[in-house]
Amino acid sequence: MIFNSIDFLFFAILFFTLWPFLKFKNNLRWSYLVSASFIFYGWWDYRFLALIILSGLIDFICGLCIDKYQNKKKYFLYLSIIGNIGTLAFFKYINFAIDTSNDILSFLNYSNTIPTFDIILPIGISFYTFQSMSYTIDIYRNQLKPTKNIFHFFAYLSMFPQLVAGPIVRAKDLLVQLEKFPEESWDDKWEGSLKILKGLFKKMVIADNLGPLVNAAFSNSVLNHDPYFWWLIMILFAIQIYCDFSGYSDIAEGLARWMGYRFPKNFDHPYVSISLKEFWSRWHISLSTWFRDYIYIPLGGNKKGTTFIILNIYITMLLSGLWHGAAWNFIIWSFLHASFLIIERFTKWPEKFSKSKILMFFAWTIIMTQVLIAWVFFRANSFEQACNIVCIMLTPSLDITEIISYIKTQYKPIVFALLILIWHIIWYKKWNNLAIINKYKVIWQPITFATIVITIILFRGQGNAFIYFQF
Fold first, then answer.
1. Is 269 a catalytic residue?
2. Pairing with 298, which of 183, 206, 452, 471 sits 20 to 30 Å away (CA)?
3. What mean pLDDT is predicted for residues 181-189?
4. What is the pTM assigned to this prediction?
């Protein structure tokens, strides 16, 4: 069940119709949330419910044992991590490991190959396993007390708005909210509605209209050899993936507001960044902070000298790349980001570019160039295709006739997407905090609401699943 579907519309209407009558008692509220979330998740394939139930049961029991048996708590933490990582490894990485092994065997002239498994990747497995692990890790660190109610735990783990594509909500943030009677005000419902509409607009109007252009470029058997074409395509993909993923997060946050809960912000205008460190503090915030708190800092962070700082950044980013997918493309994508971050950290070049607006613009251009080149490996269908595209992009050319011709044929989605990006940057930099904007929001917000609804109806693109469902 996806947010931009008729099925979900009826599901949401029924859920929020019954919610005011079923939220007053803890057990009733929690069991209702769990039941609705299981229906939502099982709509794709009910067999996948067994995985989230098994993962949840392991961590629920391990959490209780960690708290009760302090002298043996590390063993229960290991059991939790092995259970989650083992499940994730089997469904997401086993065939990648086998294919890599077969490639090595072939290189060594061995004719025998290892057969792969016929496995369907469960939707959202990377999200809920990380969310579940954070629960036991925080209990182990004495930062959280375990819940003794299994419905309370599964209401946290499986809450449907963020179940399949985030944000990854920490137990210490959401379990406490779930303990209390949710009192959603009219302001919550209004702000939640704006969030939901904003997310649907990003997904259905922007991402779904850009998707066919990007897909067509990457699916051609013969690559276009115009560098300007690929720079444009990568700009469009950058806008597409941002609107697709942040759109999902906006809808999830809005639905949570309707329920009386608050999710952490998952995106904060990443494309205004003037350093790659800033970019990662604004992009997929719940995941980047998860890797910071549970991988980078436990490895030693930046406290063990230059060599270990470099090593820790590479390990953290490479694990982030593997989290996104079992393919060499994602490893190269994360390797590039790690390398750029290390260069930035030790040269501190963005700080030297912050002395004037012109230099800041150059810094922004450099960062966006790094991001776009890395996005090629993220989006390409193969490592070979990605390398070919990057080579084309870095080849100088004075011929602009082909790109002008392409823009003429596809000008509507291109111009619209670029205008949205420009507006996005200007709004954040100039208008967002203006007193007059906040003073008259009671007037412009309803106009914005109506405009978005009309735009979604008239200009929605082809309905596609959210990009991050594959992770």
1. no
2. 471
3. 82
4. 0.90
